User: What shape does this take?
Amino acid sequence: GIATLTGTPPNLVLKSIFEATFPGQKSVDYQTWFTVAFPLSLILVIAGWTLLCLIYARSSYWNLITGKFIWDKSGKNEEVKKWSHVNKTIRKEYRKLGGFRFPEIVLLIMVLLLIF
Assistant: This one.
């Protein structure tokens, strides 16, 4: 939402306030907004993901990112079994999605045209 100018209504309100307050300045366009807001939104997504993982998968995620996670191929480790099951489930659901459909391709093209 915050990475694109049309992502949320407050972004457009800020644009109109900026243009009314500073009439002589260059207008904020889609590419300028994206260039400024995308890094911020990327940082927020990474921080949010890490926070959620630390809250809900506390010990196993912490062990994974610190390198203390032991990948036991024999299947005796319960953490390995749990993460293996999660990985298989995600892959199965991803395969169910299939390829890109026509509306998704059109939307991708439209977003890319807005950005560039």
Observations:
- The two ends are 18 Å apart (CA to CA).
- The chain is about 70% helix and 0% strand.
